[in-house]
Amino acid sequence: GFYTNLLLSQTPKHILAQTNNKTEILCELKKEHAGVYWYRWSQERQNFEFLVFLNLLGKATYGVNISQDKFSVHGVSSHTSYSLHISHLHASDNGTYYCSISQSSQLLLGRGTWLSVVDVLPLPLKSTLEPRSKKPVRFITKSKAAGKKGACSPLIWVPLAASILVLLLSLIPTAYRLHRLRRRLWLRIHRQ
């Protein structure tokens, strides 16, 4: 069986990398083990694939059809830190990568690192530079900035505006009924 466990931590959680580049995933163990396994879950192919195992002596054992030119594992002398290097990145490398150790006939998995390989990385947002003035600059703390961002976020105002619109539209038939009821009541009173 596979289990996620606190005996090992894996970083980073997400990697966005460009085609033909390389990347690295780090696995930190709380204590020394006989070695580290690396697996990949492919959402597209719906399979869990064994990539490579590195033992304490530094000997690597690769999975079926796994290229040694593409995947390599490096460990430090303490045997508690291992890194998986993936080179010549391609869209076929997309997936979630897990480091793993074997304990009591169970495989304990790290939290996973999601790798997405794209042909072109998105450009960072450009900031427009304003000419410097002699006026004092007011700094915005993170909490205030987050508050301002949250207030303007489409994720907040679009559902809010839609809810208000639905509420207003649902009030129209009620207001019409009340108007008719009031008119009937007025007519009854004036007929008497």
UniProtKB/TrEMBL annotation:
Keywords: Adaptive immunity, Disulfide bond, Glycoprotein, Immunity, Immunoglobulin domain, Membrane, Signal, Transmembrane, Transmembrane helix. PROSITE patterns: IG_LIKE. Residues 12-110 form the Ig-like domain. SMART domains: IG. The chain crosses the membrane at residues 156-178. GO terms for cellular component: cell surface; membrane. It is found in: Membrane. GO terms for molecular function: coreceptor activity; MHC class I protein binding. One of its GO terms (biological process) is regulation of immune response. Its main location: membrane. Signal peptide: none annotated. InterPro entries: CD8B, Ig-like_dom, Ig-like_dom_sf, Ig-like_fold, Ig_sub, Ig_V-set. It is a single-pass type I membrane protein. It holds the Pfam family V-set. This is CD8B protein. It comes from Balaeniceps rex.
